[in-house]
Automatic annotation (TrEMBL):
GO molecular function, one term: hydrolase activity
Domain of life according to the entry: Eukaryota
Annotated GO biological process: antibiotic biosynthetic process; monocarboxylic acid biosynthetic process
UniProt keyword annotation of Hydrolase present: yes
Protein name (database record): Epoxide hydrolase
Annotated InterPro entries: AB_hydrolase_1, AB_hydrolase_fold, Epox_hydrolase-like
Family according to the record: Belongs to the AB hydrolase superfamily. Epoxide hydrolase family.
Keywords: Hydrolase
Domain AB hydrolase-1 positions: 28-144
UniProt cross-references to Pfam families, sorted A to Z: Abhydrolase_1
């Protein structure tokens, strides 16, 4: 197991980002950016694996989570503010560019980084949420809903109904999660006992009508769910982090669709750098298998690789070895200069080579 070190970078005069780092400080740089809900420690299988082969692997607690600034200030969680934090994080490493890996809202953030600061992206890896979608506001993903499953007259917002719930009733939406943070953390990281029906509408499509989990008064208690997909020590750290902050900050990422569209919408989105998209077969909310959600990424990326582990939304929790293998193979094949030990890598050149 890699030794994880804790770091903190201050930015914007009154904010901070806490991050975990592993591997040699001069190794090729790779960032792992989590989504909702997670913290940096949930990337531990990736931090261990990449540090072991010589990468400098970094996973921040994103704003709103863990030991990073987690104020109840909605403006902290628009994409513009989040990208500012990511640029401070990159600057703290002393590097000018990195491989960026994002999951869920983390993919939205890494996509925004690629749009706003393409020179900082050596390769882009998006997990479950494709590039050129959620970071563009409602118009970036709502038109791509599978309307055979979600007829517009019955499901105006498709499986994304819960996002509208945040916009209309934010405090009420967050109150439900915060009524049992530990129970929610356990439930969200537990593998379902069975796979859902592939093309049936999901519960997230009726949240405004029925409430979370079809109207449960609070999240399931820890006794009601099976073992977490996370290792015991990682789950305990994650749950403790989430108890500290609650879900307010992390959920406030959903409040800025219009603002995010204005920030990213007019920018060039064609991406020449190598890109990898990791689908998840059983992710029925971020549905990339029966909907057109991945099409904008396919159109925007000139060098795109796609893989599909047989897993649900938290694919990096459920199938960490498969995810790591996909990442390794992608980098070896598409970006060999960023692979430790490559003869073309700046990290292996001796002084006499320079």
């Amino acid at each position: 197991m890699a030794t994880l070190t804790h770091h903190e970078v201050a930015y914007a005069s009154d904010k901070k980002i806490h991050y975990l780092a592993a591997g040699p400080v001069d190794g090729p740089l790779i960032f792992f950016i989590h989504g909702w809900p997670a913290t940096g420690i949930t990337w531990k299988p990736q931090l261990d694996a990449f540090a072991a082969v010589g990468f400098r692997a970094i996973a921040p607690d994103m704003p709103g989570y863990g030991s990073s600034t987690a104020r109840h200030v909605a403006d902290d969680y628009c994409q513009e503010a989040l990208v500012e934090g990511m640029m401070a994080l990159l600057a703290d490493t002393g590097r000018k560019a990195a491989v960026w890996v994002g999951h869920d809202w983390g993919s939205g953030v890494t996509s925004s980084v690629a749009i706003q600061h393409p020179e900082t992206v050596k390769a882009l890896v998006s997990i479950c949420v494709p590039y050129s979608t959620i970071e563009l506001g409602w118009d970036g993903f709502l038109p791509l809903v599978n309307r055979e499953t979600y007829p517009a007259d019955q499901y105006e917002f498709g499986q994304w109904d819960y996002m509208k719930h945040y916009e209309e009733s934010f405090e009420k939406a967050v109150e439900w999660f915060d009524s049992d943070v530990v129970g929610f953390c356990k439930a969200i990281t537990t593998k379902p006992a069975s796979r859902p029906e592939r093309y049936a509408p999901v519960m997230m499509s009726t949240v405004r009508k029925n409430g979370w989990l079809n109207g449960l008064p609070k999240p399931p208690s820890v006794e009601m769910t099976g073992p977490s997909l996370l290792a015991d020590d990682v789950y305990e750290s994650f749950a403790k982090d989430m108890q500290k902050t609650g879900l307010w900050g992390g959920s406030a990422y959903y409040l800025h669709h219009k603002r995010n569209a204005e920030y990213n919408g007019s920018r060039e989105r064609k991406l020449k750098q190598p890109a990898l998209f990791i689908h998840a077969t059983w992710d029925l909310v971020c549905d990339t298998k029966s909907s057109r959600l991945v099409e904008p990424m396919r159109e925007a990326c000139s060098n795109l690789t796609e893989v599909t582990p047989d897993a649900a939304h938290f694919v990096q929790f459920e199938k960490p070895r498969e995810v790591n293998a996909a990442l390794f193979r992608f980098l070896v094949q598409e970006l060999p200069s960023e692979w430790p030990g490559s003869l073309d890598s700046e990290y292996t050149k001796t002084k006499s080579d320079s």
